[in-house]
Amino acid sequence: MLYSLYTRRLRRQLVGLPKPDHVAIVMDGNRRWARGAGYDDVRIGHRFGAKHLEAFLQWSADAGVTCVTAWVASADNMRKRDSAEIDYLMELTESVLADHVRRDHRWRLHIAGQLDLLPDSTARALKEAVEVSRDRDAGDLTLAIGYSGRLEVLDAVRSVLDDAAAEGRSLAEVADGLTEEEIGRHLYVPGLPDPDLVIRTSGELRMSDFLLWQTTRSDIEFCDLYWPAFREVDLLRALRTYGHRRLERSS
Ligand code: IPE
Ligand code: MG
Asked: Where, by residue number, does Mg(2+) bind (predicted)?
């Protein structure tokens, strides 16, 4: 009751404030949340975390956010975490995240990351969800999985050079004509606006190799809650802070 009153009040406070079109979310703290809630098996945190993204997407849509990027797993996570945990995360990616995209007709799906780090079945499920959602136009959802910001920039430069070689352009010509826009066109998901706002949960104050190229002008909002405990009011508060900051800057 109180919660819904507070939610409505926050929504009213957002009216007339600048709104981010693109919100990127670093969903951190699943394992600490699980341990804090008394579960020995940290996979339960990942399950709640994956289901929680569905709710977050709905709150974002309700708040008029048309583009969401969510960090599911880093390239480092894929290499360094134990295989049972990664297997479970991949299973959730297939059975919860890809499945959600198939059923929720709002989001056109994009994938950012190195698909060859993923098990075949996960890569296939994601590619199928990308295909199924290709013609939607209400919102863009990017799942960053097997993702590293530095590797994305490296891959983009490599791809610029590959194209140039295929077109028979010399290295001197490429170097001479290289622009930010050209690198931008070779990122994993070209054509999206840069994130206006990045939210990271769990109190960690780092970017950790997320969206290196795209976040040079983004606002960043750190939130102490663990990801599965992040609520709609926390999103609305982040949007309010964002709105006020942007207003101040524009005046
Ligand atoms: C975020 O939660 C999910 C992934 C990075 C896969 P963590 O698994 O990082 O949980 P904490 O941060 O250790 O609590
Ligand atoms: Mg973490």
From this structure: 28
